[in-house]
Amino acid sequence: MITAFIFDIDGTLIDSNDFHAEAWQKAFEKYGKKIPLDKIRPQIGKGADTLLPEFLTEREIEKFGDEISDLRGEIFKRDYVLRVKPFPKVRELFQKI
Predict the structure, then answer these.
(1) Cα–Cα–Cα angle for 74, 8, 42, nearest 5°?
(2) Are the CB atoms for 55 and 25 separated by under 8 Å?
(3) Structure confidence at residue 11 (pLDDT)
(4) Which of 27, 17, 22 is nearest to 67 (CA)?
(5) Domains of the chain: which residue ranges?
(6) Bridge-partner residues for 85, per DSSP?
(7) What gap in Å lies between CA 58 and CA 17, rounded to an integer?
(8) Which neighbouring-strand residues pair with 15?
């Protein structure tokens, strides 16, 4: 008998990945890095420690990597978090469980 379920929320139960990608893009732009959304989007789900090296040099990461990561969080909370919605049928899934 199954007694527990574990779910990842962000990008699994709620449709937030595109918003995270846009927040990263805006944060990078504040530091002069123009990175296309289609390059950022496949990286969503990684932590900043593995995402930043995809787009920044080691020197850039040391200089302003933490600041970009923090800014991305602020942008997401300010501009996107209220727009995040659950994927279809999430309520029904939990009702069945």
Answers:
(1) 65
(2) no
(3) 87
(4) 27
(5) 14-96
(6) 15
(7) 26
(8) 85
Q: What is the value of pTM for the model shown?
A: 0.89
User: Which tens digit of pLDDT belongs to each residue from 27-45?
Assistant: 999 999 999 999 999 999 9
Residue with tokens 């890095």: 33
- CA angle in degrees (0–180, nearest 5) for 95-19-44: 90
- Cβ-proximal residues to 25 (8 Å cutoff; 6+ apart), any chain: 35, 37, 40
Torsion over CA: 41, 46, 48, 54 (sign) = negative
Polymer length in residues for the chain: 97
Query: In angstroms, rounded to a whole number, what is the distance separating the alpha carbons of residues 78 and 82?
Result: 8
- Domain 14-96, classified CATH 1.10.150, yes or no: yes
For residue 5, the one-letter residue type is F
The residues that bridge with 44 in the sheet, in sequence order, are 46
In angstroms, the CA 24 to CA 19 distance is 9
Residues 10 and 89: their CA atoms lie apart, in Å, by 16
